[in-house]
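Encode chain A's predicted structure.
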Amino acid sequence: MPAFRGRGARATRASLLPLPPCVSLNAEAFTLHDKVPAGLDRKEGEIYRHLDPQRLPRHVAIIMDGNGRWAKRRHMPRVAGHRAGVAAVRSTVETAARIHIPALTLYAFSEENWKKRPKSEVDFLMRLLSRYLKAEVPTLNKNNIRLEYIGRQHELPEDVQERMEWARQSTAANGGMVLTLALNYSARSELVDAFRSMLTAAAQNGGIEHLHIDEDTVGRHLYTRHLPDPDLVVRTSGEMRLSNFLLWQLAYAEIYVTATLWPDFRGVHLLEGIAEYQKRERRYGGLNHAEAHAPLTDAFAKNRE
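Encoded structure for chain A:
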């Protein structure tokens, strides 16, 4: 799937950055504003002008899919698609940071990739990850981005773990966007690890008979306990599935699917997804304002028609 993947199978919240101000020019269906963050190109700026900066998602999660198909269409080996996907990561990360998205999570390498792909491809992905981290740390620091990881990192090669920790420490003082790479990640494994962690904590604190489990308890033991739940999940390549990604956290996320293959994805596509997100009304299982205040007699009348 993603930049480091091919097309594989598959609560305490941190304080977040303030969103940039909006200078309104009209009050029609959308609000145009002339405050465009530095660094956006012309196409990105055109889309951003139609966004409401006060309603940007706090956390965007991306399932990066289509590297293999991108390479196949060009009669190139699969690894060429993975290599091309790095440019998509760079563009997307920089655009997200420039518009002050507080958190961005990229599904980079699934647990299924690790177990089911040919060893030669996995080895290439690990080398690509190491090179990416070494090359991108200066850019992350320039953009004030802090790097984190989720997944079973201890199962990755030791030299890769060392490079990951080096990159994490190198960006630890940054106070801007939190970029999280999901590496050797599986949502089902995350839940298993969370329940194991809860049992261990209870055993060390008076025994499991005192264990109380609710949603907040589970949230505090997830890999993503330092992050808000995603507001928007983007999937590239047109596939309509979550692929074992953040299954707990995406309960109320808006889903945006684009046919664009990951190596062709850029910051402008991220902004298009955010524009679609802002058209939607998030209800969290409730009703919109009009439905909530509609007289019951109206509903009965409609049923009789």
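The CA atoms of residues 46 and 171 lie 31 Å apart.
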